[in-house]
Amino acid sequence: MARSQSTPNPVRVRFDEFDLDEANACLLCNGKAVALAPTPFNLLCELARQPGTLLTKDALLDAVWGHQFVSESVLKTAISDLRTVLVDNPREPRFIETVSRRGYRFIAVPASAPAAPPVATTVAAAGPQPSPSFIGRADAIARLQQAWDQACSGKRAVVWVAGEPGIGKTTLIEHFVASLGGIACARGQCVEHYGPGEPYLPVLEALAELCRGDRTLPALLRSVAPTWLLQLPWLSTAEERDVLRRELTGVGPDRMLREMGELLDRYTEQRPLLLVTEDLHWSDRATLQLIDYVARRRPPARLMWLSSFRLAEVIALDHPLTPLRHELRLQRLCQEVVLDPFSEIEVADCVAQHSATLARDEAFVRALHERTDGVPLFVSSVITEVMERAADEATAEGRLAAMAVPENLAAIIDHYIARLDNESRALLAAAAVCGVEFRVDTVALALEREVASVADACEMLVREQVWLSSPRAGEGNEAREPPYGFRHALFRQVLYDRTAPSARAHLHRKVGAALERERSAGVPVTAAVLAMHFDRARQPITALRYYADAAEAALLHFSPASALGLTERASALLQQAPEGEERDALEIAIATFHGVSAFQSLGVGIEARDAFERAYVLLQRRPGHAMRGRLLHGFGYVLSLRGEYAQALAVAQHAEARSSGSNDPALMLAACIVNGEVHQLQGRPQAALAWIERGLITAEPLDLAAGEIFVADPQVTLLGMLVIELVHRGLIEQARAHLQRSHERARALRQPMTQLVATWHEALFEVRLGNAERVAALAEEMQALVDEFSLAQGRMACRWYRGWAQAWNGAPLEGYGQIHEACEENARLGMRSGTSEVLGYAAQALLLAGDSDAAQVQLQEARQAADELAERVYLPQLWLLEAAIARAQGRADAGAASVRRAIDEARAQQAPWLELLALVDLCEHHDAADAERSALAHLVGRLPEAGDTTPVRRARSILQPAKPA
Fold first, then answer.
1. Nearest alpha-carbon partner for 519 in 509, 507, 531, 527
2. What sections of 663-789 are H helices per DSSP?
3. Backbone angles phi, psi at 336, to 5 degrees
4. Which PANTHER family does this chain map to (predicted)?
5. Which of 314, 878, 879, 933 has the fewest CB atoms within 10 Å of its CB?
């Protein structure tokens, strides 16, 4: 029965414009009586009796409704009535605050009391008092408490709670969080998905929850974690997001890891944080990588990351969580709490919550334990069934024996399915198709039923305490109700599996259409979710459209691995789509995204190449495809990085032809960049210069965002290529001027990949001038960009430029090691472009170390690469290196012949700077003919811009007449 109105300590309090007088059973507003039903009035008194204290739902139900059996929805209704009377907005409460999933707190300030400071964080349940329904698990709670104490002392803790479905993982976590009181706690939930899920979904959910409770956090995000801020668009304006997107173009997923690590370190300097992510067996790979990264960080942090997962599923499905668990446990970077089934004593405690008399029946308890194996969910389900039959004359043991109690949970769920009426089963089947959580609007649209009718049916299922749980308070808004959820994911899975395939496909089609409508109305529905529904609805064309959108979104979220999974599924689905123009168009888009994601995730290996090639072949049939610019540039770029120069030129020629027909400057730029790079590397300077200049003219009036079509800003890329052509011509001052222009534009654009390209080309320039100190400094600048923005393309280049500088600065063997390892790693990634030059660096380092035989072997490898790839741009330097090795081995004549071949090659490439280097070498180390000395003198006069360089000073010294003795 309801609680009595006569209370030993009746509440009398004044807050804002209200006066509450429990003894006289009245609530006044500005002196006028307010009509309020007895139950909401008693609830308000109970809340006001303990201001500022969190009262759990169970505590309020016991206090207000006594021993009546009522569901949480009744409490929710009473709270809603109170808020209506008090004109209290649940999103910005003045009087009654909802603590998500836990209960309510009276936060009104009494008229005579000073205002309390606002709660700045998401808070857990108050007080260390366990829930009355919590059974056992004392050891598990003690271990969690120990980990929390460790975290509070500054030593980060990563803890797993593992067990089978229904073993009580969530219950344990809820109880533990409730025991900690008003702490900073952020919670995220992994959800079952088809193919790769949205990257970092549970972490983003937890971060959003924390931002809602702590208003200082968004500013910290802007400061140290802008890539995460970009994933929470409601925290910034459209203008701020546009600036962020430009600044973060080209940023890789590693940047997000470092930012989150720094964010957690900074945040926990002020307060300990409990981060909870449940159901990791459904986690995306990005979240697991983040856990690994956070666990391995060395700085102190008052952080505890608590996660749960189903042990059997992780092991059986060879989930990526398995190796992560083992590795972290091996290095003592995590703790694992594995939950076992209940003992007979604990089963008796469960029974006692329903009937103290039945709990003392040892035979019944033992039979129940045997039939359920002590799995808490099994126990709870069966006890509920037994108690519902309490009116039967049979004994409890008889009722238990008479029940068709299953041997596994699926059979128990089948039993409940059989009890559903047709309307409820249809509703739950549609809800199961939606997922573990679903919105009433979605199911109503799918079933073509009234929203109110579906909502009422859901509330009825909630009250049965078998199928559904109530929407979590505080998660909805004025426009949308929060979602309902299945009490256990296995209930949903069995329902889904028991639905006939044809009916299931029909429901997926209806749900997909409903979600499309909701998405168009502003409800946040991801393309990946829509792709899954239409895939299972056997509507491949629609599914493929959404798979393409989802893959593009994953790439924008810096998660190429997720994009790769989506495009793999889409590629398989393509075979089910009818042939025709639309299928071709979708296949071009999907193959292009597959190529991009494979390139970013795996390098320029065969998978990226084949994906681009498939799209390229299809483009012949669909030449007007909107993604042709991205495709042709991406394919040409991958081919050139792989050293497949003939094919790259063919793609560039295709881009040029398409640009003239479609008047598309982006296509022309793609053609210019690929042509310029290949012709330059293969020693055709006139052709390279023509393409570079044409590209610069084309790019000048355009405002193309790097990352949409091009890897880096086209102008900066072309200016860097122009610098190399100018230095080979001895136009050193012009080259420096263009380098400065390139850097200025890169800095103005604030695009990391563009800054890397500008620095890379300057390093090539300084290598040709022999400035080791400057190259060393540039290598460090490149390393800083690579580290900060996770720019995979620059990782190896940093190392070989650092190695080149080390070799010339007195540490040749260390330098050789850096160059050789970087070159081998590049080859493993499939990138062969420029291999002849980098191998030349390695041979030079060995020669500087005094090992001419090893240098000769390395040089032969460089020459072989030059022949295989037809790379001639560095050939004059390789001939000079062969001459130096021959001299070191006492073969002066062979050395002279090699120098003269270097001179011939430099002249063939119309590169007077390279010819100057060779003539200086010939005159210094060999008997140069008069014609050769005259040629050197002529070159010195032709290269006024190189007058301050070391090679020109050496040339003048050589040409100076000898003084008479």
1. 527
2. 665-681, 685-699, 714-728, 732-749, 752-769, 772-789
3. -130, 125
4. GUANYLATE CYCLASE DOMAIN-CONTAINING PROTEIN (PTHR16305:SF28), TESTICULAR SOLUBLE ADENYLYL CYCLASE (PTHR16305)
5. 933
